[in-house]
């Protein structure tokens, strides 16, 4: 990413802007309780976030991250999960430290911003509104906006197009391997936040080219005159 200054910044949502693990854990455990399955810890659920709700539910049913096939009960469990998540969507979810300050600074610079998430739009929109961040973004591409979602690059490319910016001129900020793969395929430089969810830590260790910054650190750096990444 030598000598790169973005024309726009795109962000993942869960694990990047918002720590939604408490409410995702609640919804998963209520879904498991419906079928008399034992509850999971938040740490377990955190390790399984990053590839959309369906994969999260399938992993919860299987009890592990690496699955080659979905458990037979995935469809029914996913339907229950959506009902429960709707009921607890913003009970415990919160912005990561420095996110609001960073978004304020980027907005003041006039940088267009967007969100690209695998979360369904029915949850993306109210969650962003409840946390008071919807107004920072010119576009929000959810997991069901297109026929594909990350790690496919199409959602990033679509978001850039909605902002009127070429995807190669966008910076993408995320925390998961789906984010890394989508940005790489789209030709967009990637910044990884140093928090988020731990499931893909080993994969990022194999890709040291991804710069690690918090949202406010990124904003402060880009606010410096002639600053490039």
From TrEMBL:
Pathway: Organic acid metabolism; glycolate biosynthesis; glycolate from 2-phosphoglycolate: step 1/1. Keywords: Carbohydrate metabolism, Hydrolase, Magnesium, Metal-binding. One of its GO terms (cellular component) is cytosol. Its EC number is 3.1.3.18. GO terms for molecular function: metal ion binding; phosphoglycolate phosphatase activity. It catalyses: 2-phosphoglycolate + H2O = glycolate + phosphate. It comes from the Bacteria. Its cofactor is Mg(2+). The active site is at 12 (nucleophile). The keyword S-adenosyl-L-methionine does not apply. NCBIfam families: HAD-SF-IA-v1 (TIGR01549), HAD-SF-IA-v3 (TIGR01509), PGP_bact (TIGR01449), PRK13222.1-2 (NF009695). Belongs to the HAD-like hydrolase superfamily. CbbY/CbbZ/Gph/YieH family. Specifically catalyzes the dephosphorylation of 2-phosphoglycolate. Is involved in the dissimilation of the intracellular 2-phosphoglycolate formed during the DNA repair of 3'-phosphoglycolate ends, a major class of DNA lesions induced by oxidative stress. This is Phosphoglycolate phosphatase. It comes from Spiribacter curvatus.
